[in-house]
Amino acid sequence: GAAMAKSKFEYVRDFEADDTCLAHCWVVVRLDGRNFHRFAEKHNFTKPNDSRALHLMTKCAQTVMEELEDIVIAYGQSDEYSFVFKRKSNWFKRRARIFPTSIWLLLILITDLQTVVFATAECFDGRVVVYPSNQTLKDYLSWRQADCHINNLYNTVFWALVQQSGLTPIQAQERLQGTLTADKNEILFSEFNINYNNEPLMYRKGTVLIWQKVDEVTTKEVRLPAEMEGKKMVVTRTRTKAVPLHCDIIGDAFWKEHPEILD
Ligand code: ATP
Ligand code: ATP
Ligand code: MG
Ligand code: MG
Ligand code: MG
Ligand code: MG
Ligand code: MG
């Protein structure tokens, strides 16, 4: 019958590559906006950094994290966000291909991104990488923060040359060709009176999301005895929330301060 026919054909399932993420390893999912330089142009992003876009990305990432308690830390910069799943996570049975898609769908379903996605057909590509040790995971996050630093320093000088000195993009690019970090800092300082170290931390360091206890103060209408009718009550609760930080995660200090993340 039908059941037998089905079992006869079922062997084709074995052709699916096994994409189970290795047990006990950190699973990192990085989403990166597809063709975002075009999106940024089309929507007149402030250059080099549009803070509204960065805040929106972080808001979305916070929502994802609060929906998925298996995420222990997230890191975002530019048009990308990385989500780190705890070693013991069994989310979607650790099937690698499902991770990015499900985060993406979750993002669309639970955030205002629907409007953006459906109006513009913008989308993100997603990758999954498995890191076997705490050190490799730290190095992954350091790599992304180093990328943030390098890009932001470059973009800060590039846009100063274009916006303030009136260079064309080509001229600015040529001017920066072959320059080292020290040279870029020097151009910023001597030509634009900008001390790069005083630029906003969110731009220089990106955004780290970690779980922290936060006191939440709310005022509530409560049913009180008649003589206190209409009084409001102040309620303070402690909740664990995904809190954004703009700090260095390359050095040891961050990990010493938050040992629970890698527990
Ligand atoms: P790909 O599809 O290969 O990822 P892309 O155009 O998205 O291509 P990225 O390397 O991901 O390229 O770079 C993202 C681009 O989007 C950067 O060039 C940056 O200028 C722009 N961008 C992203 N976020 C912002 C922001 N908050 N403010 C200004 N520009 C941004
Ligand atoms: P941005 O310009 O937004 O700061 P980026 O260009 O550094 O971002 P991505 O384009 O997302 O970031 O790529 C991240 C890193 O992954 C890059 O350093 C790149 O070398 C590497 N990479 C890009 N595409 C692939 C790929 N298909 N396979 C493996 N590695 C890739
Ligand atoms: Mg890219
Ligand atoms: Mg790129
Ligand atoms: Mg991109
Ligand atoms: Mg990118
Ligand atoms: Mg880069």
From TrEMBL:
Binding of Mg(2+) 2, residues: D32, D79
Membrane-crossing segments per the record: 96-119
Entry cofactors: Mg(2+)
Residues in Thg1 C-terminal domain copies: 135-251
UniProt KW keywords: GTP-binding, Magnesium, Membrane, Metal-binding, Nucleotide-binding, Nucleotidyltransferase, Transferase, Transmembrane, Transmembrane helix, tRNA processing
Protein residues bound to GTP: D32, G33, R34, N35, F36, H37, S78, D79
Cofactor note (record): Binds 2 magnesium ions per subunit.
EC number(s) on file: 2.7.7.79
Annotated GO biological process: tRNA modification
Keyword Repeat found: no
Domain tRNAHis guanylyltransferase catalytic stretches: 9-132
Reaction(s) catalysed by this chain's protein: a 5'-end ribonucleotide-tRNA(His) + GTP + ATP + H2O = a 5'-end phospho-guanosine-ribonucleotide-tRNA(His) + AMP + 2 diphosphate + H(+)
Molecular function per GO: GTP binding; magnesium ion binding; tRNA guanylyltransferase activity
Residues that bind Mg(2+) 1: D32, G33, D79
Recorded family membership: Belongs to the tRNA(His) guanylyltransferase family.
Function (record text): Adds a GMP to the 5'-end of tRNA(His) after transcription and RNase P cleavage. This step is essential for proper recognition of the tRNA and for the fidelity of protein synthesis. Also functions as a guanyl-nucleotide exchange factor/GEF for the MFN1 and MFN2 mitofusins thereby regulating mitochondrial fusion. By regulating both mitochondrial dynamics and bioenergetic function, it contributes to cell survival following oxidative stress.
Name listed for the protein in its UniProt record: tRNA(His) guanylyltransferase
Organism listed in the record: Balaenoptera physalus
Range covered out of full length: 47 to 309 of 312
